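yo

u said u wanted the structure for the complex thing, so here. seqs first:
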Amino acid sequence: MTTATQPLDPEQLRKLDAWWRAANYLSVGQIYLYDNPLLKEPLALSHIKPRLLGHWGTTPGLSFIYAHLNRVIKEQDLSMVYVAGPGHGGPAMVANAYLEGTYSEVYPNISRDEDGMRRLFKQFSFPGGIPSHVAPETPGSINEGGELGYALSHAYGAAFDNPDLIVACVVGDGEAETGPLATSWHSNKFLNPIHDGAVLPILHLNGYKIAGPTVLARIPRDELEALFHGYGYAPYVVDGDDPMTMHQLMAATLDIVVAEIQRIQNDARAFGFDTRPRWPMIILRSPKGWTGPKTVDGKATEGTSRSHQVPMANMTRPGHLEILEGWLKSYRPEELFDVTGKLNAELAALAPHGERRMSASPHANGGLLLRDLRMPDFRDQAVDVPRPGGVDAEATRVQGRFIRDVVRLNPDNFRVFSPDETSSNRWDAVFEVTDRCSVAQITADDEHVGPNGRVMEMLSEHQCEGWLEGYLLTGRHGFFSCYEAFIHIVGSMFNQHAKWLKVCNHIPWRRPIASLNYLLSSHVWRQDHNGFSHQDPGFIDHVINKKAEVIRVYLPPDANTLLSVTDHCLRSRNYVNVIVAGKQPSPQWLDMDAAIKHCTAGIGIWPWASNDQGGEPEVVMACAGDVPTLETLAAVSLLRTHVPDLKIRVINVVDLMKLQPPSEHPHGLSDRDFDLLFTTDKPIIFAYHGYPWLIHRLTYRRTNHHNLHVRGYKEEGTTSTPFDTVVKNELDRFDLVADVIDRVPRLGIKAAYAKQAIRDKLIEHTHYIAEYGEDLPEIRDWRWQ
Amino acid sequence: MTTATQPLDPEQLRKLDAWWRAANYLSVGQIYLYDNPLLKEPLALSHIKPRLLGHWGTTPGLSFIYAHLNRVIKEQDLSMVYVAGPGHGGPAMVANAYLEGTYSEVYPNISRDEDGMRRLFKQFSFPGGIPSHVAPETPGSINEGGELGYALSHAYGAAFDNPDLIVACVVGDGEAETGPLATSWHSNKFLNPIHDGAVLPILHLNGYKIAGPTVLARIPRDELEALFHGYGYAPYVVDGDDPMTMHQLMAATLDIVVAEIQRIQNDARAFGFDTRPRWPMIILRSPKGWTGPKTVDGKATEGTSRSHQVPMANMTRPGHLEILEGWLKSYRPEELFDVTGKLNAELAALAPHGERRMSASPHANGGLLLRDLRMPDFRDQAVDVPRPGGVDAEATRVQGRFIRDVVRLNPDNFRVFSPDETSSNRWDAVFEVTDRCSVAQITADDEHVGPNGRVMEMLSEHQCEGWLEGYLLTGRHGFFSCYEAFIHIVGSMFNQHAKWLKVCNHIPWRRPIASLNYLLSSHVWRQDHNGFSHQDPGFIDHVINKKAEVIRVYLPPDANTLLSVTDHCLRSRNYVNVIVAGKQPSPQWLDMDAAIKHCTAGIGIWPWASNDQGGEPEVVMACAGDVPTLETLAAVSLLRTHVPDLKIRVINVVDLMKLQPPSEHPHGLSDRDFDLLFTTDKPIIFAYHGYPWLIHRLTYRRTNHHNLHVRGYKEEGTTSTPFDTVVKNELDRFDLVADVIDRVPRLGIKAAYAKQAIRDKLIEHTHYIAEYGEDLPEIRDWRWQ
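structre next:
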């Protein structure tokens, strides 16, 4: 007989517990065993791995949850994925995938027999094997593990626009202390019960992180429940350590919360969205290293931080081998696997079928579900540029119109993510077709806010990045629009995503996903008003430390090149694309045809700005980025006045990776092509958007590197004018002219006059801005002729 | 008559409101006025600044709080500082500092008269003036503003070990959405009411961030209160928009919470610490842009996101000048300032005296209070190194003993901060003299946890960094111990702190503070067990983008050099010191005398490892970092066997900045010294800890750069062995030998044999680890002879 509080009949209870024991047995085996996987022989030191690595502490709890989720999946034919925040619980996720058969399907050598089990055990945390984390190699995973803090954002990202999916997300109490995780509970204000799926957060309190107690395990229950009530959830507590009692409790709780999720969804889908629902969440309090050794060497182990990693790390100590053998046998493996190592049929039958297995869900291998975006023609947004410099435009505003059309054409698999900067970065056009998303209270004064909005804005770069990653990893598309300086906030998340992509490139069953696209605007050169704290172009430096095969950096100089680059990025797969572009009105250089050609090449001579046709230049003026391009062209214009016979070649770089040798990056120019562009012996004045040394880093192997002189941002800034900001960093037109003059000795007396004129102009500029607070009109209004 | 709910008598109320009006008047003046500061003439366009920049929205709320805090400070002679999370509220903090007189004391040109007021207005967000944020230039500030998210961690950091201080911390509802802020509420589990001061968080809900509504402003009041109850606070709500009503409410609330803070402290200080107190906090809900224009161009402005920045940004539009004039006059400036621009005496008398003024608190200019650390002699911890490579030690474990003694000698102004990695990074010795800090529940199984602990561990790098910054900025000392890969999490916080230090270097009244010291251990080369996600040496690259005058990077190769470097860093001021060091048992190279000499030079030839004495080497083998040093010496050892007559010079780099030209960094070697070390024409094989291109970036201007070949981490990693990890990145001894051979042509046939031997050894290694999971014993146990 079953009841609401005892929902499992004895048979169900026995089987569910057996699955859990099997998962635990396989987990301990992975951590310890080199051989003798079925314990057919008495355990000996030769059966133990030489290095014991892994994390037992969180593992049994993860498997406990897994087993229980499988019951409800199977009973109710649910579509679920499992986000395992405690990434160190790799053994659990691998064990359950193996029990479900998925593991052997994707890795046939890890077969469902004694040999396969031996390999399963050996490969764990072993050279040539698999990491101890939930890693790309783990079927069913969407980039948990490694760095902590992002499980819940990933889970919500996975749930957006997946109405039939329930994302179970286990949050460890260690991870719960991180900032990103602490704010990600608020994601429930952005989840629409009609067209989004559900997230079921399971806070797993086991009391300790590596060494110390956790914050949430040490606050009274009333505070804990108040906290999650405050976060907008209905918390259900499952607390205890006796397995059989806990099974009934967990099963009863899962029945309630799944019913509650369905009630919320059914209500909203039948009657329309009304008010933000109070979604359920589970607080599972169980001992760290549950079912592991109670004591080791006389010290309490189960339930303490001594269970965090390997409870007995030195197996040569007296008694340790016996503890391990007893521990393994406590799971009664002979009831779980037959003599060939095959999982008993009645246990195998507990696994959901096919893609219902969480380890085999296509949502956790998003490339399988990825549909190409329906792409508007970016040429439709082209700015009409009758001649270079002939018109002004705000590049990102133009880009925003293209993004608007992408939003419109892809109403269920494309979203925009931004820390409240969509409008500030000039993508206002998207609000013609959608809103900022919010299922919280909306007031009459709110503009473009609604429960169906596809612009995800929360003032947390972490949340935006985590949502987007979860959305991409489950097979959808998106764009992150951010201030350039503050994208550093997610530098470490970017690291983890780039590493994930790199590893996935070498896992055949992982299918390519859409690229992670960043627009970085409100960039360093136009933070003159916000000042020094808002000026940092270093994210590019950070990005290009990652493997060349997964990263791309673009610095389109105007609107049409930005459109072309944006189109390219949206069609790409498995990259991180960084686009840096300005939002202020600026001269436009290329018409659409020229822009497409220029972006396709990624780098090129601008003949209309050069006067070296048919011969070698005396100086090469290169530029990358919108403001450096403007200053370079203004410098060229000054040089034409002062030294009209000087032969100048102007090169613009859109694709920064073109500068590297092809051995370093697939986009890299051959040395021959590089030399043709940059000459082998002429001075190069390179005006660059970011920190100048990056250009040296990219080009130090090139023939003409010793003639390369780079100007860029060198950490000089305060609240001032746009032009004063470039002057402070010596990237301005006058300093560029001086750089040229200094490097072309033949200019002689002309040069002396030109330098004097420059000095006078800079002094005039300084006086003018101190008085009027604005740039000299002749500088502000300068246009290319 | 006053009552508990109406604590202000009419006179008090009038004056308090007048102060607030004065602050608001000065704030609007800063945003708009170029001239006519006292409105003696009818307002004209010529009185308006040409560029209107700044943030009005949060400003009146900040001033409202300031005025009320002043009342309780003065009435009760409290010591308080004001942390203004909404950093864009610069005008408010500047206005109040000006009203208090502090501003004119530190900037005599901004005098307390009409001329001074004109300058005060003009300088704001004006070239050559001050930023729109609460910036280093703002007296009373400790690094709020700029990037959001860290106000509350800073506040708690300021309160630690400051028993008489109350830190009022205003958290904007925008900032409250960030991850770091969301977790920093939990800081109350780490604040000891006996020897720490108090933090009074004031959550300022004004409903909007730049463009969209905020999360916390749109949840029902029961959820909001539950959230803060769950965070462990007693929330007090002050909600409304009528100034006079709000004054009484706020005053009544402040009386209650200050009494409550004192009761908590008195209880704990009289009777000892018992259980974590429930500290009070205030939720202030008031309109965005409070007291500003109700509508502009027919659109609601006060109370909406249209008040976020400048309510009327285009003053040439009809009616705008009139709105501004009416707005300014609504504060009745003629009642606040006399005709000379001097603040009325009765208002001036509202300011607390001297250092009680929050703008003049020495706690907000920590260098004033900074005491030197009492320093133990680091030589006492020296590892006895009879000959190079003669003993093994765990460098950070040795360092931990020195840190232990620093903790012991400085019981009230030095703390250790770590995301639960103090023990993992081998600083266990500190637990001989102190505990992990926690005022939450402590259980019998906890090790080294106590309410007086000076080790601040929370699994949040943000929190650790924020606490430490707050602690340093208020004049104390500390150390951050972290895993190398995950320090990227605070990359953006580091940016802000480094920028703060750079600006402070040029503000005479800002006194130097203790350096921010990072130990980065569990570094890239010994994350073989945790795998790829834990491998990232790029923080160094990030750090050296910041201004040379504030950053230092050290890579001590062993324990004694680590001790020497640590001592140096703890004595330094106004820097960010990054120390990368290993925690695993490794050969020790230098005895203490040699270590001190080597660290003092920062770079040097190791004669005992070189055989080029008295002549030029044929090859220079340089190394930086413990593992690269080991591999370099092992390579030298192999070369001695295979090509004994090869003249090798070994150079070790401790201070990475030595490599840069002196024009780029004050530590940089002169070109002459560099050439003496590295030769002008011999091949250099450089084994480097991090990404190899960094060494190129630092040295590209050096004479011999074209002969430089760098090995380092190139994003190849997975779970494997330590040696396999260096092999995967070609930093291993065998690849280094091959690099040498490839660059010394005269070696001829010997070289061919040596390369074959290397190839064989690498194959043997690969087979061995695949089978045994450990490195070849001859490699693992290799020792320098």
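The radius of gyration of chain A is 30 Å. Chain A touches chain B through 122 residues (CB under 8 Å).
cya
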